[in-house]
Fold this sequence. Notes:
mainly alpha; 0% strand
Amino acid sequence: MKNKVLGWALVGVAVALVGSQLIPVDTTNPPADGAMTMPAGDTGQILKAACMDCHSNETVWPWYAHVTPVKFLVADHVNEGRSKLNFSTWGAVTPSRQARKLEEVAELVQEGEMPEGTYTWMHPEARLTDAQRQLIVEWANAERARLPATDTAAAQAADTAIAPTGGETGLR
């Protein structure tokens, strides 16, 4: 009796997995309007390998992004990453918000929190060495220094108005 119940349970799970494969997940990339110009050389290559799949509209969707149940996790991860930092819409972000995002990039990369382990597990090219981390930190700090000083109350209010839902400001 136990084997029969277990067998039917496995059949039910298999049917649910096959059926869920029919549920579409959007893996199209929106236009990259106002994209940030990536730096040339090693820094640009590192950013492309370690950041752009989740933090731009230039995601390269791997084969497993079309397989249930992983497709739901990958799409959610990319959508969340884009909502927190999207290099493809960088031009629409105020300079003071850009400065804060670049500060967060430097901090999270320096601390080893970005790129996330769930990404580097399947993308070994995104695993950063200490030297690569330092290049990104230096780039983020240099970009931040190039921005105009806009720490006015109006700029802060504008940034608050475009903050992601839930008031979250981090990259994770």
